[in-house]
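Tokens in:
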């Protein structure tokens, strides 16, 4: 297995320009493909997951000028395709929903881990709309075969909100294809609400305004998407969390550019977590800066981080540097991500010397008196690799196994981290 050894980092300071948001990039690409007109996408993230979406759209017959990130949208000319979508949830779930209403014969498969990630709740909702979908393996999981169906007009469908917000986002983006208003009702507590906000915001940019009643009911008009001509993808707030946490742990200041107060991403609320831990935070419309507490160590937290599940992983590693045990709650969605992140996080935190209590939807992390050098397994999960890189700020050498997994969202991550790091003198 390939690995990367990170030498101890004495402090971090500097400025980092964030790559485009993965969550926004893949939503924009899909809606640009569906929208009437030509759309140029600025600051599109160049990563494994966006590559998966671009390749899939080209297989569906969408004309894409890759050098200028320009899509000629309006429909999917190809009514038959075999799409292999890796472990990209932001591609697999929305494409399932859109293609189920597109009137073609499609097969969708992914990496082995994707075939372990549930999709039954989304499929049930799509079938209620009239879609015809078959499981090609285990019931409730990919791979899938999609066939032309008779889509119900003026339908009302229900979808669970307590497993993954991607189910609701996928239905919202697909519903305009039904040709008349569709009502989507959410069963249970909707998790990761900020990601649904991103979906609604991007849909609005493409001319579709969704009415909603709280987080329980969404009314989606049956109208065609229209291109805004140009659209800019803001910097990735989830990726910014690693550098902001580094600034809080390693003196700082660290400034991230490309995301700030005007962001539509919920993960900018990670700054609130850092502030509760005592970090110094300042923010402009397009930048955020973090620094270490004025005195002493970071403070322990007891926090419900359901609204920022990705950045919550960064918080778990930052808890290694706190003055007492920290508890991160309401993170059950971690179980169905790129890996079982609750189990994986607990295992790797223990390698560093922490005492960790693992609950069904929570972690309690007791930091050690001193971190232990460790080899971190990353479980083919980009966020495991990036969040655990911060352990090098604890004066230890950290080996990251399979560092290339960061290519899913941030291929240059380790180079960028090195650019703001000052190593411990030999």
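Residues out:
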């Amino acid at each position: 297995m390939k690995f990367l050894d990170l030498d101890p980092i004495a402090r971090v300071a500097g400025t980092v320009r964030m790559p485009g948001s993965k969550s926004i990039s893949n939503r924009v690409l899909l809606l640009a493909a569906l929208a009437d007109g030509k759309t140029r996408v600025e600051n599109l993230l160049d990563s494994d997951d966006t590559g998966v979406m671009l390749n899939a759209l080209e297989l569906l017959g969408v004309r894409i000028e890759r050098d200028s990130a320009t899509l000629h949208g309006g429909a999917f000319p190809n009514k038959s395709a075999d799409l292999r979508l890796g472990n990209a949830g932001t591609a697999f779930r929305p494409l399932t929903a859109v293609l189920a209403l597109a009137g073609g014969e499609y097969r969708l498969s992914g990496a082995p881990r994707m075939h372990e990630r549930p999709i039954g709740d989304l499929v049930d909702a799509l079938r209620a709309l009239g879609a015809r979908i078959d499981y090609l393996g285990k019931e409730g999981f990919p791979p899938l075969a999609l066939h032309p169906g008779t889509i119900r007009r003026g339908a009302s469908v229900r979808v669970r909100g307590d497993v993954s917000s991607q189910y609701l986002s996928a239905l919202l983006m697909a519903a305009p294809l039904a040709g008349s208003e569709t009502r989507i009702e959410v069963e249970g507590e909707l998790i990761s609400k900020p990601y649904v906000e991103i979906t609604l915001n991007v849909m609005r940019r493409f001319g579709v305004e969704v009415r909603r009643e709280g987080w329980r009911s969404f009314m989606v008009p049956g109208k065609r998407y229209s291109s805004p001509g140009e659209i800019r993808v803001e910097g990735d707030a989830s990726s910014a969390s690693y550098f902001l946490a580094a600034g809080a742990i390693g003196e700082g200041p660290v400034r991230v550019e490309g995301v700030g107060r005007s962001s539509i991403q919920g993960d900018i609320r990670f700054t609130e977590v850092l502030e509760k831990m005592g970090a110094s935070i300042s923010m402009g419309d397009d930048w955020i800066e973090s620094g270490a507490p004025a005195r002493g160590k970071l403070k322990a937290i007891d926090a419900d981080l359901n609204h920022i599940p990705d950045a919550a992983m960064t918080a778990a590693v930052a808890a290694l540097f706190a003055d007492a045990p920290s508890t991160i709650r309401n993170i059950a969605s971690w179980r169905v991500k790129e890996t079982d992140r609750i189990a994986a996080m607990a295992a790797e935190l223990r390698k560093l010397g922490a005492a960790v209590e693992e609950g069904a939807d929570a972690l309690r992390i007791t930091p050690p008196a001193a971190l232990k050098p460790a080899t971190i397994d990353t479980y083919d999960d980009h966020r495991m690799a990036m969040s655990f890189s911060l352990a090098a700020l604890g004066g230890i050498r950290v080996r990251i196994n399979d560092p290339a997994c960061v290519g899913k969202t941030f291929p240059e991550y380790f180079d960028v981290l090195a650019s703001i790091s000052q190593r411990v003198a030999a």
